Amino acid sequence: MNINANTTPITGSLPGPAAPSPDNNTHPSALRGMRVLTIRGVTKTYGSGDTAVDAVRAVDLDVASGEVLLMMGPSGSGKTTLLLMLGALLRPTSGSITVPGRDGIDVDIAAAPEKQLPALRAHTFGFIFQDYALLDALTATENIAIAANLAGTTGAAAEQRATELLDRVGLVHRAAARPSQMSGGEQQRVAVARALANDPPVLLADEPTANLDASRGRDLARLLRRLADQDNRSVVIVSHDDRLREIADRVLWLEDGQFSQVAAMAIDPVCRMQVEAAGPTATWNGHEWWFCSNACRQEFLSDPERFTTTTGPLLDQVTGSPDRAAAPDSPPEPLCDQ
User: Fold this and answer.
1) Cβ–Cβ under 8 Å, residues 300 and 277
2) Residues near 57 by Cβ (< 8 Å), separated by ≥ 6?
3) DSSP secondary-structure letter at 321?
4) Which residues pair with 281 in a beta bridge?
5) What is the edge-to-edge ordering of all strands in the sheet holding 68-72?
6) Between 20 and 30 A from 299 (CA), which of 31, 108, 199, 224?
7) Helices (DSSP H) in 31-132: which residue ranges?
8) Which alpha helices (DSSP H) does 232-303 contain, by range?
9) Strand-pair category, 265-267 with 274-276
10) Once rounded to an integer, what is the mean pLDDT over residues 188-208?
11) pTM recorded for the entire structure
12) Nearest C-alpha neighbor of 30 from the set 238, 323, 244, 313
């Protein structure tokens, strides 16, 4: 039995005895009542009759609190369409998208009246866009404060919230700067802070690293991972950027509007990096473990209990995903490079 990797490619269904429905892309912690998004049979069709095109076809998906979910796929595969539907910015043709309401009652945003959607978006989702979507006439603080205003926080409280969030993303010293005075990496961090202004349980990110160089893209990826770990906040990312696999709990491949297989991922028990289930491996105590390098493998074999005592319970043997709910502390930065 493999504890730190899934040797079966992930498809539209995740096998395993924990899953109540074998046809759902269900994260293990979601099965314990921690779902923040439940998607069932979602389809988006453009046109009708002979010209009808299904951009998304009968997708089932569960997203858990504290999970980083990465959806990848070729251009035109339906990734952005699905993300827009998850964020109540686009109506599906059929299916349901359920989120916990503020009163504790689940709400199907696919069926909710149009007049209810702005409030649902304002309190449930934070959006991060590829092109940052900052208002250049406003400072960093003002861009964030406006988002806080939409969620009901105004005046000095909104400015204080903006300052706190800028400090959290390491940009409090740029509070008075306008977007045109910032680098791309700085603008995207302000955009992340703005997405947090309403303290949403779910962050939705559309190609968040596409306009960033390798270093800044990696920094942003780690920031998103920390937000999931420290806040128990869900992060759903649509991207072509393979670098984001390192910080994801799950990677799903969307093609022709449906999820299909993706290479299995494992977590190196030594450096905690996500790695493909290939390369250096070791068997200990009846389990198979995968590593990013022979150096990590040798360190593991020198004292396996040091790593398995804390690692084992945090990993799901079906998906290879860390159980973030059981691990409140942020994972350490990777100790080695692949």
Assistant:
1) no
2) 43, 78, 256, 257, 258
3) -
4) 290
5) 125-128, 202-206, 234-238, 68-72, 250-255, 258-260
6) 224
7) 79-86, 117-124
8) 294-302
9) antiparallel
10) 95
11) 0.72
12) 323
